[in-house]
Write a structure and sequence with these properties.
Elements: E1 2-6, H1 8-16, H2 20-35, E2 45-46, E3 51-54, E4 59-62, E5 66-67, E6 70-71, E7 80-81, E8 91-93, H3 98-114, E9 121-125, H4 129-141, E10 147-152, H5 157-169, E11 174-179, H6 188-196, E12 200-203, E13 222-225, H7 238-246, E14 250-252, H8 255-261, H9 263-267, E15 276-277, E16 304-307, H10 312-329, E17 333-336
Parallel strand pairs: 1-8, 9-10, 9-12, 10-11, 12-13, 13-16, 14-15, 14-16
Antiparallel strand pairs: 1-17, 2-5, 3-4, 6-7
Helix pairs in contact: 1-10, 2-3, 2-10, 3-4, 3-10
Length: 338
């Protein structure tokens, strides 16, 4: 028996070959499976609640999951990924950046489903891997974006490096950085202007206090919340959450997970019938391709929000897609084992 081992470089080569459309379609199928319920006698997926193990300096998170079959973005339309069901290990891959990529793909899907058409300005809070993948994927998907603002606690090496990367890959986009620590705000006028003019706002921080007030956000803006995964974390205030609820535009990846983990929703007292799972909004054609409404209008009133805490099925799907694509490209090293 052979075990495929994929290095970080192998995974990077594979993921560069995935288009934004293919990635969001993959996540659309994941969310559709998650929202469709399951046959108790023959379940096609299983994703228990995440396991958390605290350590001295960090929190280790484990998200086991199983999914039986899913259209694959790595090959022909008819190709379907079929995770190894025998229990034997098929491949080992460096997944350091895959969580951020699958989150970005889900967020892109939300933008195309309920966000503004032809967004022109994006503001991102944070400068880590999540923000990097979100910016790269959205800028690839929306050439209409002309300004990009990165907001970080400080304009450190990580923020500067990310800004330089955006400038290099997207020279037509005016990219800038703002240093702003929410515990001691120092750039309020510049930050307020950036948020007010934003078409898209990406939040990927571990903040325990809102990053900006609801009053700064213009109607029609789409907000993606990726950072919080504990009840004590809050990237936006309750007023902004309620604005989305009023328009029936508060999307989540998993209703159960978000209502038990997302601090912003818990603090705002959000009920289950006030959120919409993103998987409830997707539809597909006969070839399992995602169908987006070409006549959809940009939201005029209120705001739209997508809150994601991440689900294990996303990891299974993106890992399977990477493995299948790597096999097709002849990448990785095969190790024989008994």
């Amino acid at each position: 028996m052979s075990l495929l081992c994929l290095s970080g470089a192998d995974v990077a080569r594979v993921t560069l070959d995935f288009s934004p459309a293919a990635l969001q379609t993959l996540m659309a199928h994941v969310f559709s499976v998650l929202s469709s319920g399951d046959n108790a006698e023959n379940p096609t997926s299983y994703t228990p609640h995440r396991i958390t193990i605290p350590t001295q300096n960090h929190m280790a998170l484990f998200m086991p999951a199983r999914i039986a079959s899913l259209p694959c973005c790595a090959g022909p339309r008819s190709n379907r990924m079929r995770p190894h069901e025998s229990g034997a290990v098929k491949a080992i891959l460096n997944a350091a950046n895959l969580t951020a990529l699958r989150n970005a793909a889900g967020s892109l899907l939300s933008t195309n489903l309920v966000g503004p058409r032809g967004p022109t300005s994006i503001v991102a809070f944070g400068a880590g891997a999540q923000v990097k993948e979100h910016l790269l994927l959205h800028l690839r998907a929306f050439p209409s974006i002309r300004t990009c603002t990165i907001v970080n606690r400080a304009i450190n090496d990580r923020a500067s490096t990310l800004a330089d990367l955006i400038r290099t890959r997207f020279p037509a986009v005016q990219t800038s950085c703002i240093a702003n620590d929410v515990t001691a705000p120092s750039a309020e006028p510049a930050l307020k202007d950036a948020v007010l003019s934003a078409s898209l706002i990406i939040c990927a921080t571990s903040s325990i206090v809102p990053l900006f007030p609801s009053s700064w956000v213009a109607d029609g803006t789409h907000i993606v919340l990726i950072g919080s995964y504990k009840p004590t974390m809050h990237e936006i205030d309750g007023a902004l959450v309620r604005r989305a609820i009023q328009q029936r535009q508060l999307l989540v990846d998993s209703r159960a997970a978000c209502l038990s983990e997302a601090g912003e929703l818990i603090a705002a007292g959000v009920a289950g019938d006030e959120v919409i799972e993103i998987g409830e909004l997707v539809s597909f054609d006969a070839d399992s391709e995602l169908v987006l409404d070409p006549a959809r209008q940009s939201p005029q009133a209120g705001v739209t929000i997508f809150k994601s805490v991440g689900v294990g099925l996303q990891d299974v799907a993106i890992a399977c897609a990477v493995v299948q694509k790597a096999e097709h490209m002849g990448l990785g090293r095969h190790v024989d084992w008994a």
